[in-house]
Design brief:
152 residues; globular
Length: 152
Amino acid sequence: MKSLLLIILLNLSSYNSDINTIRKLYLSAHTNEYNCNNLGKKLTFIEDNTSILIKGYEGCFYFIKCKFINNPIEKLIYFRKGKKLLETAIKEDPKSVELKFLRYSIQKNLPRFLSYHDNLERDLNFVNANITSINNKEEQKFIINSLKSITK
């Protein structure tokens, strides 16, 4: 019984470390292709790749990757893949403040002609209304600080 508890605790701490690293990589991924690819690599090699939140970040990676692709058809493929992953993650966990924040941050930075901006105001309102209900202080701090930089 003690060994089972130890395994669970080790996996949980590994996940928390991974998600904190992914958050940091996400914030810098849009700045250059190297950082974007680092986010993609981390997402590929993460142990708990079945997590709904990880799926959301993977969707965001595909959106950001579009910025560094020249081929319009390839861009569209990445865009659709990112949209599908992010929307699926939100459907699986519609009360996740972090997932709604991710969608907001993506939609806020996408060109309007892509017609993926329907949830912008709704997501921002949801995040602002529920930010204090987040128990994980690291997650809460990440979202608050990121929102400040996005809404400037």
